[in-house]
Write a structure and sequence with these properties.
Blueprint (H helix, E strand, L loop, with lengths): L6 E5 L6 E5 L9 E2 L2 H6 L3 E5 L3 E5 L4 E4 L7 E5 L5 E5 L6 E5 L13 E5 L5 H4 L5 E6 L5
Parallel strand pairs: 3-10
Antiparallel strand pairs: 1-2, 2-5, 4-9, 6-7, 7-8, 8-9, 10-11
């Protein structure tokens, strides 16, 4: 059986890091997060399984940032500083992919983005993942 999911081309801003990725459920997993790190980063992420990313160029140019429990692993281009992806804390078998890195995709293509409660992370509280709100974008006329 072949994998019929769409393969997205992606890269950092300067193009040093280039990769292909198949998303877990296309853009149905899109979200932001309220944790201290994601609030400052401001990126919109979408899910991909660990095996569904293939680096074409520049994987050695990625740098890693970890904090607190060091479970989530956040990757950035050493040259331009753009966050490309991270291994999720909530689901370590998945990456969160920065949608702005996907060729032909803009974070402003999505009128509503669920914002997950990362302050009360399910791994800390023992509860379920909770939506904290919705981020909306309306194009000016």
């Amino acid at each position: 059986m072949t994998d019929e999911r769409h393969q997205h081309n992606a890269s950092c801003h300067c193009g040093t890091v280039r990769f292909r990725v198949r998303l877990a459920d296309e853009f149905n997993t899109i979200r932001r997060c309220t944790c201290s790190y994601c609030r400052m980063r401001g990126a919109i992420a979408v899910s991909a399984n660990l095996a569904d990313i293939e680096f074409i160029e520049g994987e050695d140019n990625l740098t890693l940032y970890e904090f607190n429990t060091r479970t989530a692993k956040h990757y950035f281009c050493k040259t331009c500083g753009i966050y490309t992806h991270h291994q999720r804390r909530s689901t370590p078998t998945q990456f969160g992919i920065n949608v702005a890195c996907l060729e032909g995709v803009s974070p402003f293509d999505f009128p509503e983005i669920p914002v997950m409660d990362g302050v009360t992370h399910p791994s800390d509280s023992g509860g379920k993942a909770r939506v904290a709100g919705v981020l909306r974008f309306e194009k000016a006329e």
